[in-house]
Design a protein that fits this description.
Elements lengths: L6 E11 L2 E6 L2 E6 L12 E8 L5 E4 L10 E9 L3 E5 L6 E4 L12 E8 L6 E4 L18 E9 L3 E6 L3 E6 L13 E9 L5 E4 L4 H18 L3 E2 L7 H8 L3 H13 L3 E3 L4 E3 L2 H27 L1 H9 L7
Parallel strand pairs: 13-15
Antiparallel strand pairs: 1-2, 1-4, 2-3, 4-5, 6-7, 6-9, 7-8, 9-10, 11-12, 11-14, 12-13, 14-15, 16-18, 17-18
Helix pairs in contact: 1-3, 4-5
């Protein structure tokens, strides 16, 4: 068979079978079990399916989407640890095997591990390895400082956190660039290129710079306030670690963000917190201000058009009825 294992491909429905549908491409065909056959599938249709192996290591197709495919990195939960290795949940009926020879450190059931998915050369079945660094590509050319990237944290060293960048190459999130609350191993987060070193290695940061960084900080504080019910027990005197834990920002970025939100009257300060200003109150204030401006404008226009009337009104004696 030449169909690629642990990959998603397009196959045509060739015929029905007692166990499901037979799909094929060229001279290869494969079973799609009844349990995962789409209700509207017809012979001649083309289906997008994932190819893996069943309990007897026979190739089989599924319309389910796995958490990772061949040549991809992922954070997966350990289902159990057996005599020859561990089994990982990757979203399919048959768990993904992680051999002892491919493990690093102690692997514990119900804990997560960072792995690379590959196809075993002998058995031709999908397997996982925790030795991810051997599968990281070289950083691409053309990376720019400040460029946004997706990170998957896979290890921690004395210098900082190692991350898989954009699911492809490696980078280092230095302690000085990540705040005082480190991302946990297995964390997926947004990061930024802070430096492209002369040796080709990549330094990373969690803090965006420039306009993008400012917008990100504003959104982070707004989101944290809404999630907390409109009030956060933070001030500009709060410890950096408390700010990082609450809103995911450095103290410097936090202070800039709350200053910006206060300037446009989205928040107010108390002695021990910041609070969202009621949106309805803001809207009423804005409407009142607009109405006042409109009234002033109309009055000025009326005076301009009827100067005599304006003067008469000003000089007129008080009414006897007053």
């Amino acid at each position: 068979m030449t169909l690629p294992i642990a990959e998603t491909i397009e196959l045509e429905i060739l015929r029905k079978a007692p166990m499901g549908l037979i799909l094929g491409r060229g001279e290869d065909d494969i079973l799609l079990p009844k349990a995962v056959v789409p209700s509207n599938a017809q012979i001649g249709d083309t289906l997008s399916v994932f190819i893996y192996t069943d309990s007897e290591d026979r190739p089989i197709a599924t319309t389910l989407t796995p958490l990772a495919q061949a040549e991809e990195f992922a954070c997966l939960r350990v289902i159990e640890v057996g005599a020859k290795g561990a089994f990982l949940d990757w979203g399919l009926p048959k768990d993904l095997f992680l051999p002892f020879s491919s493990q690093i450190g102690q692997v514990i059931a119900n804990h997560n591990v960072i792995v690379f998915v590959e196809v075993d050369r002998i058995s031709q079945r999908p397997v996982a390895t925790m030795k991810v660094e051997g599968h990281l590509a070289e950083p691409p050319s053309g990376l720019l400082e400040g460029q946004g990237v997706d990170l998957l944290i896979y290890d921690e060293t004395e210098l900082g956190c190692k991350a898989i960048v954009d699911g492809d190459y490696g980078g280092l999130l230095h302690f000085d660039d990540r705040g005082r609350v480190p991302p946990e191993i297995g964390s997926a987060c947004r990061g930024y290129i802070s430096r492209v070193r002369s040796d080709g290695k990549i330094n990373l940061t969690l803090q965006a710079s420039g306009r993008e960084g400012a917008d990100h900080a504003l959104d982070a504080v707004r989101a944290a306030l809404r999630e907390a019910g409109g009030r956060l027990p933070l001030t500009d005197k709060s410890p950096p670690q408390e700010i990082q834990a609450a809103v995911g920002l450095s103290k410097k970025a936090f202070k800039r963000a709350v200053g910006g939100l206060y300037k446009v009257r989205e928040i107010r300060f108390t002695e021990s917190s910041i609070e969202l200003v009621d949106d309805t109150h803001n809207a009423e204030n804005a409407e009142n201000a607009e109405n006042a401006d409109t009234a002033d404008t109309v009055g000025e226009a009326d005076k301009a058009e009827n100067p005599a009337t304006a003067n008469d009104t000003k000089d007129a004696p008080a009414s006897d009825d007053a």
